Amino acid sequence: MLARKSIIPEEYVLARIAAENLRKPRIRDHPRKARFIAKNGACNLAHKNIREQGRFLQDIFTTLVDLKWRHTLVIFTMSFLCSWLLFAMMWWLVAFAHGDMDPSTENPSNSTKWTPCVTCVRSFTSAFLFSIEVQVTIGFGGRMMTEECPLAITVLILQNIVGLIINAVMLGCIFMKTAQAHRRAETLIFSRQAVIAVRNGKLCFMFRVGDLRKSMIISASVRIQVVRKTMTPEGEVIPIHQVDIPVDNPIESNNIFLVAPLIICHVIDKRSPLYDISASDLALQDLELIVILEGVVETTGITTQARTSYVAEEILWGHRFVPIVTEEEGVYAVDYSKFGNTIKVAAPRCSARELDEKPSILIQTLQKSELSHQNSLRKRNSMRRNNSIRRSNSMRRTNSSLIVPKVQFITPEGSQSASET
């Protein structure tokens, strides 16, 4: 917030803002690339210039499920209202054609007994109420069918069939929207950042995945894809080139037992697109790693899919995830407050190719980290010794200051008596 003119001159304020902007340049080396998959799993893709719009009407049920809730509720309400109004008009026409609207038929003479098609239908409002009663099977008892008009019986059968179809479609649509698979994916979480570190002597790309619910995901599998812009030798530019990369799993398949948060590991070997990327090259890479977790919901049996992605800025080189699963009183406890926490560890800054060609780099890196760890321990121990010595000296000084000297008293008789207070 700028200062007032009466306190600080405006020229000084503008000069200070300019100096701050010069200290912190905001110019980026390269423009930020748009993500293909957002962190919440949504696809960052816009469909434009679709000419064949009629294909969406051929699959009307999927179209209704994919609509937004406000549009679905409007269609749900209007479908019932329109059907009630349509059949109300038909009932009114049946009654009008039969002469039930004639006032003379309301109080017929004793010699002539008049039987209407539908009792107590004298206006369009009463026909509309009777249409609602027929379609939703309320049946208040004031209006009822008679056997006088075969056309009215046909309209009754037709309205019942149409009402059942509308109920089946709209209620099924509402159920599918409330039980969609991506709703279950809201409780499947991924770590905000991924890491690259050494595991079992190999550089590995790792991230953490967890499930917040106690109901498990059956036959859960994890797939990783690298999306990047490539160019073929013929000069063809592929803006979204997808490459599958393997996941390190002791089982032959990619199925995981997601009962607790797991660290998914990808070994950077010759098959990996990250094989030639070093720590310095990572920030300049225009790539995106997409993670897809699929499985069957245990409670509903519906297949669900959770997605996320990691760009180069979200990959930490030389870090490792902290452990969050501990055993407390015979129960394994998971601390989700540390779900995305990482610690810095020793890792070579070269690429996996250079590490395979020169294995001594890893040994040197580990030796340096061991030496630095020992030096830090020595410094820590020396600091502890110095602190203990300072504390002991300070305690001695305080104790010496508390010692009271002896005081001698001289009596009038000339004898001396010593007393200590």
UniProtKB/TrEMBL annotation:
Potassium channel inwardly rectifying transmembrane domain residues: 37-180
Cellular compartments annotated: Membrane
Annotated site residue numbers, Role in the control of polyamine-mediated channel gating and in the blocking by intracellular magnesium: N167
Recorded topology in the membrane: Multi-pass membrane protein
Segments for region (Disordered): 372-397
Membrane-spanning intervals of the chain: 73-94, 151-175
Chief place where the protein resides: membrane
Comp. bias regions, Low complexity: 384-397
GO biological process, one term: regulation of monoatomic ion transmembrane transport
Any single Pfam family the record assigns to this protein: IRK_C
Keywords: Ion channel, Ion transport, Membrane, Phosphoprotein, Potassium, Potassium transport, Transmembrane, Transmembrane helix, Transport, Voltage-gated channel
Catalytic activity: K(+)(in) = K(+)(out)
Residue intervals of the Inward rectifier potassium channel C-terminal domain: 188-358
Top-rank taxon, per record: Eukaryota
Keyword Transferase: no
GO cellular component: a single term: plasma membrane
One term of GO molecular function: ATP-activated inward rectifier potassium channel activity
Entry similarity comment: Belongs to the inward rectifier-type potassium channel (TC 1.A.2.1) family.
Protein name (record): KCNJ8 protein
Naturally occurring in which organism (per UniProt): Vidua macroura (Pin-tailed whydah)
Gene that encodes the chain: Kcnj8
